[in-house]
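Checklist before submission:
- one chain only
- standard amino acids only
- sequence pasted in full

Submission:
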Amino acid sequence: MFNSRGFTLIEVLISMVILAIGLLGLAAMQGISLRDNQDAYNYQQATLLAYEMQDRIRGNNDANWTTVTIGTGDCTQATPCDSQTMANNDYGYWKRSVEATLPIPKTGNSVEIKSSVGMNNAGCKGTYATSLCLITRWARTNNKDTNKASKLSDTATYYLEVTP
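Returned file contents:
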């Protein structure tokens, strides 16, 4: 019979290598999880900001939302805004809120309001003749590794169809 009193040095070394490989895999998964969590948070923020803008559009449906420009005008009780000036101010507020909350994309606008008629997009089908499409774009945090080919684009986009 064999007389075994404990582990040999080789057995301990092999078990340490296996443990180290497992811990490295766990650390890599943790990093991926943190990036995915940040992307999910950004998606949630984009959704909340788009729904806030949807409420602003529905509250001011007299304005022509397809021609809005970034407005920063002050509306007071003494000099009230007309519906188009208010729409411009709301659009400017939405753009500033998105750029303050989400990472700004490298290319393209961070926010857009378009007529959704004829877009035939997954998010904006152009259901009604007055439908608008709110488009929010931000830079993805999950695509930072430039050495690897990724199926994810550098920019994430959220579409919300609104009927004023």
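Reviewer check: The longest strand covers residues 132-139.
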